[in-house]
Design goal:
By secondary structure, the protein is of the alpha/beta class. The protein has a domain of about 140 residues: 3-Layer(aba) Sandwich (Rossmann fold), CATH 3.40.50. It is built from 9 helices and 9 strands. The strands form 2 sheets. It has a 6-stranded parallel beta sheet with strand order 3-2-1-7-8-9, with helices on both faces. α6 links the parallel β2 and β3. The radius of gyration is 18 Å and the shape is elongated. It comes from Vagococcus bubulae. Keywords: Metal-binding, NAD, Transferase, Zinc. It is an enzyme of class 2 (transferase).
């Protein structure tokens, strides 16, 4: 009997149109911590959601700045998961909808990426709107030109998502014959709610260390993403 990993690999190889939905577990092999595990960014931190909220940015910008700086890992490189997804993009229609804000899918060369929660590496001044380099932001949170407070273009708690990102993600999911969920607990909404827009006859594959709560029929391969993608 064919095992689940082989079955999932064969489905991906046969697919013509794939949407990958990826989370923090995809980037841990690149040395970027996840959020909620024992070694994650949130572990041991009181009220981390506040520290990454619009309210914190406005009321205590210095507190926000000190916390958000920990999320930057500019030397991190794409790992085998990012690279294999980019390779598949060369021969298939592939869209990647990611919760990650590290740009590693883009750095790996995938042409169709929706960074659903924005990017740490897109920084701008809230006062004048000018783009600011990450290296400048890492040195000081104030814009040298006008004195305004710089922020990364990520979706904070209490902020709305990009309408264009939502529309693009829904469009991709409605056309894909395979949806592959990788490295996420799939508990963050509305990201997890995108699955409801998939084509009814599409196949759903989940590659994750733990089972996820998902009503749709799916094939679960319970292992690290880097191990699975090394075999494709």
């Amino acid at each position: 009997m064919i095992d689940l990993e082989e079955q999932a690999i064969e489905i991906l190889k046969q697919a013509k149109n794939i949407v990958f939905m990826t989370g923090a577990g995809v980037s841990t092999a690149s040395g970027i911590p996840d959020y909620r595990s024992m070694t994650g960014v949130y572990h041991g931190v009181d009220n981390p959601e506040y520290l990454l909220s619009h309210t914190c940015l406005k009321r205590e910008p210095d507190v926000f700045y000190q916390f958000v700086k920990q999320l930057y890992h500019p030397s991190a490189k794409p790992n085998v998961i990012h690279k294999k997804m980019a390779e598949l993009s060369q021969t298939k229609q592939v869209g990647i909808v990611t919760q990650n804000i590290d740009d590693l899918h883009i750095k790996a060369g995938s042409p169709n990426v929706v960074s659903f929660h924005g990017s740490l590496y897109d920084c701008y001044c809230q006062k004048c709107g000018q783009s600011v380099s990450v290296s400048d932001y890492m040195q000081i949170m104030y814009h040298k030109e006008c004195g305004g407070i710089i922020r990364p273009n990520v979706v904070l708690y209490e902020e709305g998502l990009s309408e264009s990102n939502i529309e693009t993600a829904i469009s991709w999911l409605s056309q894909a014959d395979v949806v592959c969920i990788v490295g996420t607990t799939f508990q963050v909404y509305p990201f997890s709610g995108l699955i409801h827009y998939r084509k009814p006859d599409s196949q759903v594959i989940v590659i994750n260390k733990e089972p996820i709560s998902l009503m749709e029929p799916h094939l679960l391969v319970q292992q690290k993403g880097e191990n699975f993608f090394s075999n494709i």
